Amino acid sequence: MTSAILAKLPEIQDTIRLATFLSLFLILALAERIRPRRPLTVQRARRWQVNWTLVLFNSLLIRYLIPVTPFGIAVLARSNQWGIFNQFTVPEPFEIVATLLFLDLVIYLQHRLFHRFSLFWRLHRMHHIDLDLDVSSGTRFHPLEIMLSLIIKIGATLLLGASPPAVLLFEVLLNATAMFSHANMRLPLPVDRWLRLFVVTPDMHRVHHSVLPRETDSNFGFNLPWWDRLLGTYRAEPKEGHDRMSIGLKEFREFSGIWLSLKNPFTNVRNRR
How far, in Å, are 5, 19, 45, 56 from residue 163 at the CA level? Predict the structure, then answer.
């Protein structure tokens, strides 16, 4: 990547991320309207009001509480020669691919961690109490989980000494695939089978949102489906099929507004962990 483009990245990275987010959100929302995979059980407007409020709240919270981003850390690490890649001279294509794979593996392991331990599960389960899945579900995370995830990504970026362009690319892809994998859109089965060899598809990730714990604890990948296959957490289909399966958690079967969603980690129920 030329030095001129690299010099402009800090100024335009937010624009790149926002433009990608809004464009893909609109495309996927339109695809859901044209070819929905499942009928929704809760009015879209009620759910979107909650999920979009969370997006806005999380964005403002992160900006003022943790003003450092993985991209900013990558710029700092590169200028100070911190991290593994800054100790060696490696081809840029190799560094980009290695960064994407490493950070994606970190996110996969983080996801499993959040399902494995009760304290983390309390934060993460707000994502799972959504009674329907659509493109907005890919943005629905508790602020405390968002902050923990950001700290983990910052630590991984610093350890690796990843290049700023590679980190920006990963952040854009992670956001894009999170929306895509949650989208309520119907893909032809042959297309889905082919795509899930390379990326997590909506049908693959929907299994993860089943009310059945053994299905909830599968298909943890966000970008790549390979970690699930390699580490034994891959499940091809839900037991009840995609049309009949129930989405959400057995402990929370009522629609949760913004306040109930935010306080969910502090709600005492019979914990499944």
Answer: 13, 22, 40, 28
